[in-house]
Specification:
Helix 3 runs antiparallel to helix 5, helix 6 runs antiparallel to helix 7 and helix 9 packs antiparallel against helix 10. The protein is mainly alpha-helical. 69% of the residues lie in helices and 3% in strands. The longest helix is centred in the first third of the chain and has 19 residues. It folds into two domains: 147 residues, no CATH class; 98 residues, Tetratricopeptide repeat domain (Serine Threonine Protein Phosphatase 5, Tetratricopeptide repeat, Alpha Horseshoe), CATH 1.25.40.10. This is Tetratricopeptide repeat-containing protein. InterPro entries: TPR-like_helical_dom_sf (IPR011990), TPR_rpt (IPR019734). It comes from Dyella lipolytica. Keywords: Signal, TPR repeat.
């Protein structure tokens, strides 16, 4: 099962939680349906616990333990909400979601912590690591229902489509992930864009569109010179082109 590398997931999670604590969008604190605030620190601690379990290969324990707790907390809190709920990491992302809801004449609330969406994402990642593509896809789509322009979530869904050999959906999703990187925290944008571009390159190789694949890997190198994965993939694609007589 091809997924976003665990080291990268760990990096993004730590950055996401830190960013949410120090530079979260100006939105109301998460609240339960009873009006009492959700203990954000407790949810983040559970997410860290889940990450440690996933890192140790205890995917089922993470799914059925801390991730289930976080998901239950938020699903219970917003079960009867009449407004569309979003999770955003940055102010730009929060304003974008508010604009979507407004254009649809729909009430919305944008949570200033990404924990709920992150729990679905990590559950999808854990399912993917176990080879359960059906549940991985379903959980990632739940994460994207809350954070539809999250590049990290989109790329992981693209990886699932790759493993399903659903090349069309994979390519479309990686393209969306590339565009969505603009909403990410500044320190993540290049890494997220490169992951999305390499994902497109991989799919284009599978479709035997070698010239287009080369363009995607070069696009990554233009913003991240020395990216070893893109360099390695370029060498591989050029070898395929040579065999094809191009």
């Amino acid at each position: 099962m091809k997924t976003l590398g665990l080291a990268i997931v760990l990096f993004f999670l730590s950055i996401n939680l830190a960013y949410a604590q120090h530079a979260a969008p100006a939105a109301p604190r998460s609240e339960t349906s009873a009006g009492s605030p959700i203990d954000d620190a407790a949810q983040e601690q559970l997410l860290q616990q889940a990450m440690a379990q996933i890192k140790a290969g205890m995917n089922a324990d993470a799914i059925n333990g801390p991730l289930a707790q976080v998901i239950h907390t938020y699903e219970t809190a917003y079960a009867h909400s009449k407004r569309q709920v979003y999770c955003a990491e940055t102010l730009t992302e929060a304003l974008f979601y508010s604009g979507i809801a407004s254009s649809n004449h729909q009430g919305s609330v944008v949570l200033s912590k990404p924990d709920w969406a992150m729990a679905y994402y990590l559950r999808g990642y854990a399912y993917g690591s176990m080879g359960d593509l059906v549940h991985a896809e379903a959980s990632l789509k739940q994460a994207l229902a809350l954070s539809p322009s999250n590049s990290q979530f989109l790329s992981e869904l693209g990886n699932v489509y790759e493993n399903e050999k659903n090349w069309s959906s994979a390519l479309d999703t990686f393209q969306s992930a590339d565009g969505a990187a603009e909403f990410a925290p500044p320190e993540q944008k290049i890494t997220l864009r490169c992951h999305a571009l390499r994902g497109q390159g991989y799919v284009l190789v599978e479709l035997h569109k070698f010239d287009e694949a080369v363009q995607k890997y070069n696009a990554c190198l233009s913003i991240s010179p020395g990216d070893q994965r893109s360099i390695g993939e370029l060498d591989y694609v050029r070898g395929l082109q040579a065999k094809a007589g191009k």
